[in-house]
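Researcher: Next sequence.
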Amino acid sequence: MPSAADSFIEELAEIVAAKVERRVMERLQELISELATPNPAEELPQNLTVNETAKFLRISKPTVDRLISKGSLPSFTIGSRRRVRREDLIAYVDSLVRGSSR
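Model: Next structure:
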């Protein structure tokens, strides 16, 4: 049979563990939130492939190809590979945002 002191220590340990766990969970949630909302422009490579561009815009590769062929989205080639400059992609998205706010 545990003594009163043992019971007190056990109860105190549970309280401390609950508070530590709560603080750890709160901090983990903060970190996850920070990681989930990065600045996408900072993480983009200088020159994106068509697939990377499509993934960033959350559209299909053929749609990116159409935007490029129409001249809506500037691009260049390296050998036979098409690339989109990060600055051009950001400018394209900005133009869409400005156009939709009219």
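Model: The first strand starts at residue 47 and ends at 49. Residues 4-36 form the longest helix (33 residues).
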